[in-house]
Amino acid sequence: MDFDPAEATEYSNRLNIVPITLFCMWLGATVMFWLQAFGPLRSFNRASPDEAPFYWLIGSLLTSYAISFLPLSWYRVHRFEANGRIYEALGVKAIRALVSNGDLINRLVRQRFPGYRVHAFAGRIDKVAKDGRSNELSHLIAFGGGLVVTVYAWRIGWTDWAAWLTLGNLLVNFYPVLVQRHTRARLEKITSRYR
């Protein structure tokens, strides 16, 4: 190894700030939506919602909480996703380049630190799979809660908010879930060769 792993990891962490910031922007927009729905930050030209936001906020939180109890069987790679074509058709490869520790970030780090790997392959497949399940669950929880927020925004006629929250939720939560599932399918294909 011709580089300092700590320095390479620090550089990778700095690059990962960009996708993490995008997630935080979506999260911030969601908080702003609730603050407008409840009233403290509602603009003067926007009417109060016809439906009280309290129950929808609780619904969003309960949906997120319920998702946290998904069974382990949820994370199995199903036959239809095993070859990865469905994910490639949905553009997951392009998104995979842009997520934290994604292809683009790894390529940039390797230009500066040749030989850098997020995970050393040997003996790490189980950890990569476990981390992937954890990342998938985190994004599923955020996606589920965000979906309820979006439905509420549509129901009260705040279509501008609904459109932005939907777009953000798809980009920073739904697609990262697909990236994790695609990665798991790829890992299973690799490990099946050595069984």
Outline the structure in words.
By secondary structure, the chain is mostly helical. The model has no long low-confidence stretch (mean pLDDT 90). It has helices at 5-38, 53-67, 85-89, 92-98, 103-112, 125-155, 159-192. The two termini are 30 Å apart. 70% of the residues lie in helices and 0% in strands. The longest helix has 34 residues, at 5-38. It has one domain. The chain is globular and about 60 Å long. It is built from seven helices and no strands.
Instruction: Give the domain tally.
Output: 1
Q: What is the C-alpha radius of gyration, as a whole number of Å?
A: 20 Å
Tally of alpha and pi helices: 7
Q: Main sheet?
A: none
Structural class: mainly alpha
Estimated share of beta-strand residues:
under 5%
Unreliable parts:
none
Mean pLDDT: 90
Count of strand segments? 0
- Overall 3D form: globular
Distance between the termini: 30 Å
- Percent range of helical residues: 55-70%
Topology as H/E string? HHHHHHH
Question: Can you describe this structure in just a few lines?
Answer:
The protein is 70% helix and 0% strand. The protein is mainly alpha-helical.
Descriptive keywords:
mainly alpha; single chain; 195 residues
Q: How would you summarize the topology of this molecule?
A:
Layout: H1 5-38, H2 53-67, H3 85-89, H4 92-98, H5 103-112, H6 125-155, H7 159-192
Helix pairs in contact: 1-5, 1-7, 2-6, 4-7, 6-7
